[in-house]
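Sequence in, structure out.
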Amino acid sequence: MRFLKSSFIGLTTLILILLDLIIGFGTLAIINIPRAIVPIKSFKVYLSKVSNFIGDITVYNLKVIMLIMHGNNIQVINNNNDDDEYALDEWYMAMSNHQSWADIFILLASANYKIPLLKFFMKKELWWIPFIFLANKTLNMPFVNRHTRDEILKDPSLRLRDYENTLKSCKRFLRSPSTIFSYAEGTRYSEEKHKAQNSPYKNLLVPKVGGMATALSAMPKINTLIDYSVIYKSKKRDAWSFLTGQMCEVKVLVTKYEIPDSLKNRNYSDDDQYRNDFKKWIESIWIIKDADIERLKF
């Protein structure tokens, strides 16, 4: 009986989420058709705002689906006690730890209508997935190439190419208030990866800061970094466990940091001091984050 109930919840949740995404991205695809043929900047700015509006509605519907199917089990904890200081008309940078593909739904729901729509950096290898492709084309969520340190050592031009591609993508965020989001660890956490990295953190992988630092170089309007720490009660991390509600009990700690002036308007591609300073700043946040996750475990 428990298996049947779990299967029903999982299948129903999957169907509802797919319907929400199909309607949302279908609408986005239709209204963005003129963008390819109308070269007027003000028109593209207007379409960007409308697209974000539809994106927020789609995320709100997703949040309602999760509430109905899984209950009110997402506990959002504001670490700064200043909810009123977030604004929908400002630009933000955000990051989070990464444990499951379900993280994206938890984070979108937690941020919905509190800050501008999250814009994720997405792996270019995933372009063939319809919803990801449409997110790139209609919501300006950028694709990024992630080259390894060894690849860059063999071909140093890759660093400049990645930097220029990220800059180009981020320029589109200037059209309307956005929250540029990155999974700082660059991959989902696992005990195997943690051991292979010999990570100095108990609950986290070593952060990779290149994408965020480059985005900050391109976005002078960003003054605030929002850090999300996601803590699940369940040890399960697969998609079916999320859909069936087995991962529904989760805490999301939200911490706001003002970005130091010394890290603004710098060039990540050729400024070694900036790269080092930005890395140290994120690592200092990572130490606090690791302790917070340990403290908030179920």
